[in-house]
Amino acid sequence: MPDQDHRRCGWAETHHDKPFYVDYHDTEWGVPVHDDRLFFEMLTLEGAQAGLSWLTILARRDTYRAAFDDFDVHKVAAYDATKQEALLADPGIIRNKLKVAATIKNAQTFIAIQKEFGSFDAYIWKFVDGRPVINHWNTMSEVPVSTELSDRISKDLKKRGMKFVGTTIIYSFLQATGLVMDHTKECYRYHQLAK
After folding, report:
1. What's the angle, vertex CA 165, arms to CA 122 and CA 153, rounded to 5?
2. Is 54 labeled as catalytic in the residue annotation?
3. Buried b (16+ CB within 10 A) or exposed e, 83-120
4. Out of 11, 28, 54, 186, which one is annotated catalytic?
5. pLDDT in tens, 45-62
6. What's this model's pTM, rounded to 2 decimal places?
7. What is the sign, positive or negative, of the torsion defined by CA atoms of 131, 133, 138, 188?
8. 11 an active-site residue?
């Protein structure tokens, strides 16, 4: 368990025996992202999580990167039926036909967004006027699973043709990529990221 000065959000403590899970909390979650490749990776992983736990997906992150060409959006957008069949046979990822097909469709839509806005980064950050939403929660039970912001982004992405981008998935995506900072006040990362 962490000392008083190194407390973490409750969800990270539930699997403190999994170094990759704790490391994700400590180094990535809630940190503002401006890299389109990472945005596409997180959109894909959050969509893959639907109906599952984040631990299940995070444990497969390296195999997802290998299976999806390190989330090179142009390569993924060009996947054909043969590649889809290979993905559905890969035990290292969640072999769900709808999720695999959605990843390819989402890559194509992601590229269309990049063309329209110059980058996905420019598109997504406009929803928060370029500044992270800094929340001040005392406990994880206060943290919402969706908000008006995630509702708006989800609706816009669906309108553009993306799949597995419901409001709950999008809220998790916003937390993961630092557009929303939801570390609780007792967490040492809150004090670093809320500045």
Report:
1. 45
2. yes
3. beeebeebeebbebeebbbbbbbbbbbbbebbeeeebb
4. 54
5. 999 999 999 999 999 999
6. 0.95
7. negative
8. no
